[in-house]
Amino acid sequence: EAQVTQNPRYLITVTGKKLTVTCSQNMNHEYMSWYRQDPGLGLRQIYYSMNVEVTDKGDVPEGYKVSRKEKRNFPLILESPSPNQTSLYFCASSLARRRDEKLFFGSGTQLSVL
Amino acid sequence: GESVGLHLPTLSVQEGDNSIINCAYSNSASDYFIWYKQESGKGPQFIIDIRSNMDKRQGQRVTVLLNKTVKHLSLQIAATQPGDSAVYFCAGLRWGMDSSYKLIFGSGTRLLVRP
Predict the structure, then answer these.
(1) Gyration radius of chain A over CA positions
(2) pLDDT of B98 strictly over 80
(3) Which of A102, A111, A94, A99 is nearest to A36 (CA)?
């Protein structure tokens, strides 16, 4: 089944404790992206990657890192989480070809930073 | 700056009625628009899309209308069912000259279906 898989679904951590949220897609998509979703603010892009070893900042990159060493994986790293990073996170992927731009989303990771 | 937004945070409709969810955008350079449905506890799911060279596109029970003159997008759901209850997002996508790819989401409208 074609899908974007994020782990974990739920995560509670404390300020300053490094964490990684994994994301994997099995559709051979070139484009991958991370979003955070906060009430009243919709989905805001954190980082995106157009292809392997190519990553760029989105609209809210501060406090986050990403890597794209393989096409299928795009982990989101919080080196020193803070309470304002408490949010619902989504990973997404697409072919990002003109005329085929549909974005597929994972099921989300609810992160709470205490 | 560019933005994509929705008119109403919540829309309540009677089961069986038609629903219309609206969205406005500010960037006339957007090439492509998508509507997503997000059910509680799930990620956004693609519903329907439309390109900027079209003004209407129909799917199964859903129709998207695009009015580029007033930069307005709407999603119409026919014969709304309880399973349509969700948050609906519109998103606008723009391809840059450098092949960059930017998708901007609105804040969402929660559709509530009354039995």
Answers:
(1) 13
(2) no
(3) A111
Selecting from B36, B93, B107 the residue whose C-beta is nearest the C-beta of A101 gives: B93
At B20-72, the pLDDT tens digits run 999 988 876 677 899 999 999 899 999 999 998 999 999 999 999 999 888 89
- Asked whether B34 and A102 are in contact (CB, 8 A), the reply is yes
Nearest Cα to A9, choosing from A94, A91, A97, A110? A110
As beta bridge partners, residue B73 has: B23, B66
A26 confidence band (pLDDT: 50, 70, 90): very high
Would you say residue B1 has pLDDT above 60?
A: no
What pLDDT is attached to residue A54? Answer: 92
Give the pLDDT confidence score for residue B6 in this predicted structure: 59
Q: Is B10 exposed, middle or buried (0-12, 13-18, 19+ CB in 10 A)?
A: exposed
Find the angle CA(B13)-CA(A107)-CA(B100) to the nearest 5 degrees.
95
Residue A14 Cα, gap to closest chain B Cα (Å):
23
Residues of A in contact with B34 (CB under 8 A): 101-103
Give the minimum alpha-carbon distance from B42 to chain A in angstroms, rounded to a whole number. 5
Total count of residues recorded for chain B: 115
- Separation between Cα atoms, residue A92 and residue A105, nearest integer Å: 4
Contact assignment for B107 to A104 by CB distance below 8 Å: no
Distances in whole angstroms, Cα of residue B12 to Cα of each of A49, B21, B22, B88, B104: 38, 11, 13, 13, 25
